[in-house]
Amino acid sequence: MPVVNVEDLWKTYDGEKAVLKGVNLKVEPKEIVLIKGRSGSGKTTLLNLIGCIDAASKGNIFLNGCDISTLSKKELAEIRLKKIGIVFQSHNLINDLTVFENVLLPLKIAKNRDGENRVNELLHTFDLHNLARKKPNEISSGERQRVAIARALANNPTILLADEPTASLDIDNCDVVMNTFKKVNDEFGATVIIASHDPLVDKHVQRKYHLYNGKLTEDEL
Ligand SMILES: Nc1ncnc2c1ncn2[C@@H]1O[C@H](COP(=O)(O)OP(=O)(O)OP(=O)(O)O)[C@@H](O)[C@H]1O
Ligand SMILES: [Mg+2]
């Protein structure tokens, strides 16, 4: 059974033309897939729908076989917290919290008692431990990007959605991020869906799609 199964998905924002016009996508367990497409083609829109943070206009999304349109707000919030990790294109870090507190937040909300150890482990993985006490506006954009990735991984999600995760990174950090995604994929069986323009990402993925004119098609690697 696919972990993510998107069927004939449509999205129209109020008063606009449709952005997604019948998107189909099946992602099997442990796959790493890449979604490309020019700016404005709907990549973020698609990730937001899969990530249960926006509702489709038409069509269905099944996560682990469950039709998310049948879930209550509370059930959706639980899935977002425990099953899905999202790396937002705009990072969405909380400026009043330190780097450490930003990564700790989802663990606290999930009432994880071992949260602080998990944060330390993640900060080491992404070479952020020296920045633990800084606030997001006191670090570089590549560092913020890595904090956002660490936060998304905090609760060991089974579905990781990453929107332009390497946009502000150099090649070494891009490799660190992609290798971490591979590790999450290999060791924890997480499915990873990446939206990206970055050509450096291509060599790390198993499937590649592009979004054009509201439709998604698979490309050869
Ligand atoms: N909340 C919104 N309300 C209205 N229109 C929106 C909203 N969010 C996105 N759009 C429009 O939907 C289209 C797709 O936007 P989206 O952000 O999904 O594109 P994208 O492929 O992620 O682009 P980029 O590569 O620049 O990040 C764009 O035309 C955008 O202007
Ligand atoms: Mg986008």
List the helices and strands and how they pair.
Layout lengths: L3 E9 L5 E10 L4 E5 L6 H8 L7 E6 L2 E2 L5 H10 L1 E4 L11 H11 L5 H11 L15 H13 L5 E5 L7 H18 L2 E5 L11 E6 L2 E5 L2
Parallel strand pairs: 3-8, 3-9, 6-7, 7-8
Antiparallel strand pairs: 1-2, 1-4, 4-5, 9-10
Bound molecules: adenosine-5'-triphosphate (ATP) and magnesium ion (MG).
The site of adenosine-5'-triphosphate has 12 residues, from helix 1.
Describe the structure.
- This protein is of the alpha/beta class and 221 residues long.
- The protein has a single domain (4-219), classed as P-loop containing nucleotide triphosphate hydrolases (Rossmann fold, 3-Layer(aba) Sandwich).
- The chain contains 6 helices and 10 strands.
- It has helices at 43-50, 73-82, 99-109, 115-125, 141-153, 171-188; strands spanning 4-12, 18-27, 32-36, 58-63, 66-67, 84-87, 159-163, 191-195, 207-212, 215-219.
- It has a 6-stranded mixed beta sheet, sandwiched between helices. Strands 2-1-4-5 form a 4-stranded antiparallel beta sheet, with helices on one face.
- Helix 3 crosses helix 4 (115-125), helix 3 (99-109) runs parallel beside helix 5 and helix 4 packs across helix 5.
- The longest helix has 18 residues, at 171-188.
- The radius of gyration is 17 Å and the shape is globular.
- The two termini are 24 Å apart.
- The mean pLDDT is 94.
- Residues 43-44, 89, 163 line the site of magnesium ion (MG).
